[in-house]
Specification:
There is one protein chain. This protein is α+β, with helices and mostly antiparallel strands. The strands form four sheets. The protein has a four-stranded mixed beta sheet with strand order 1-4-5-10, with helices on one face. The chain has a four-stranded antiparallel beta sheet with strand order 2-3-9-6, with no helix packed on it.
């Protein structure tokens, strides 16, 4: 354990020095630029910081999930937007792809993804299927040596810039027939809608599939793959929770320095008990969420993290991160509210993660199932059941 911790500490020290040298100076400008930072992606790829937990035989680093969490938290402290690129290269759709892709698929797509020259995006949510992912209507039908894909996807992270899309589809009726396919940008019949902005400034666009040809070799998971896909989604939630905590701490540290120096009424702001209590409450929330995240990551050392521990960690990290950023903005007043500081960006960004990757309410539902050791269906009763 000591040797492992020493290696991780050395990794974090190296990443910290890299982030200070190459990422910190442009952090504010990147935060307010909706475009994907391809130059930073290639820089991170050159530093072997993409694909950290992907096996070495597939071109990754073969590191642990804990290593990847430590790296993304460290980078986020200096440049939140660069941490988003680490998410895309380590925790999101790429992790599901690397876990379940064929050797041929990985050989074709991973080199460019891990070098920062390509970007994968998840196509899961639909106009009528958000949290109720099993209600998706995007479907594939057999056509000779492949399939024809039809449907629409929304809310996809990096959908405006992605070069490859991991699309959840229905091969037939019922949850048992849900799987996923890989679709390249520019495929005939695949069009992207106009970019729209989230509150964070990040952009997304609607995806339209009109008889898009999908060769059989581009099927990632066929019928019966839904549970595997959702298990991979737990890794995305770990990255989400890590960034929420990191941005909360960035805002907390920025505000702590401000109130320690800013003078009003002849005393520094940190001498006012009202502010002292706010900072104490935030510190407890951040530390508690950190421990819950560490538990989920540590217990996932032998594989993918558990749904329960991931849900607990994400819920705690999302709430703590937003609390920290929101209180930091309040403590800094107009400066915190302005775009002269990263604090207001941290507030907007952490607010979004309370919805993305599993809303707080859905996480509480999952936690309750573990508490009571039973499933609670959220689905309305079928007419025959109601009778």
């Amino acid at each position: 354990m000591t040797a492992m911790m020493t290696e991780r500490e050395a990794l974090v020290d190296s990443v910290r020095a890299f982030a200070q040298r190459h990422l910190a100076s442009g952090a504010l400008e990147r935060a307010h630029d909706p475009a994907y930072s391809w130059d930073i992606a290639r820089l991170l790829g050159a530093q072997d910081l993409l694909g950290l937990t992907i096996a070495e035989k597939d071109g990754g680093q073969g590191a642990t999930l804990a290593d990847a969490v430590a790296v993304i938290k460290e980078v986020a402290q200096f440049c939140p937007k660069s941490a988003d690129i680490l998410q895309a290269g380590n925790f999101g759709a790429i992790r599901t792809f690397a876990e379940f892709g064929t050797e041929e698929q990985k050989a074709k797509y991973l080199p460019d993804l891990l070098s920062g020259n390509a970007l994968i995006s998840l196509g899961m949510s639909e106009p009528e299927a958000g949290s109720a992912a099993t209600e998706l209507q995007t479907s594939v039908t057999e056509d000779g040596d492949g399939y024809r894909l039809n449907g629409t996807k929304i809310w996809g992270t990096h959908s405006v810039d992605a070069t490859l899309f991991l699309v959840y589809v229905r091969f037939g009726p019922g949850t048992r027939n849900i799987g996923s396919v890989l679709v390249e940008r520019g495929a005939e019949g695949f069009t992207l809608g106009q970019p729209s902005n989230y509150m964070s400034g990040e952009q997304w666009c609607q995806l339209y599939f009109d008889d898009v040809w999908v060769p059989r070799e581009n099927v990632l998971l066929g019928p019966g793959g839904f549970k595997k896909q959702m298990s991979g989604f737990n890794v995305e939630r770990i990255g989400n929770a890590s960034r929420a905590l990191a941005l909360g701490r960035l805002a907390f540290d920025t505000a702590r320095a401000h109130v320690s120096e800013r003078t009003q009424f002849g005393r520094t702001l940190n001498e006012f008990q009202g502010l002292q209590w706010k900072f104490a409450e935030v510190a407890v929330a951040l530390d508690g969420a950190e421990l819950l995240l560490d538990r989920a990551v540590t217990n996932a050392a032998a594989g993918l993290p558990s749904a329960y521990e991931t849900s607990v960690a994400k819920l705690a990290a999302n709430e703590a991160g937003f609390l920290a950023a929101n209180e930091a903005m309040q403590a800094m007043g107009a400066l915190g509210y302005s775009q002269e500081s990263l604090v207001e960006y941290c507030m907007r960004r952490t607010r979004g993660w309370m919805i993305a990757g599993g809303s707080l309410e859905m996480l509480k539902n999952r936690i309750a199932e573990e508490v009571f050791d039973r499933k609670f269906s959220q689905r309305a009763p079928r007419p025959e059941a109601a009778r």
